[in-house]
Amino acid sequence: MRAEDAYREAIEEGLPVPFEVFAARLRACPDAVHMRDLLVAVACSHCPHEALPAFDARFQGDVARAARRGSVEVQELAQRLRIRLFVPDDEGRARIESYAGKGSLRSWVRVILARLVVDIQRERNAGVTFPAFLVSTAMGPELTVGREEIRAQTRRCIEAAFAELDDEARRLLRYRYARQLTIDHVARILGVHRATAARHLRRAEDRFRRAFRSSLALEVTDVEASMLGELDLSWSRLLATRE
Question: To 10 degrees, the CA torsion angle through 25, 31, 36, 42?
Answer without folding.
Answer: -20
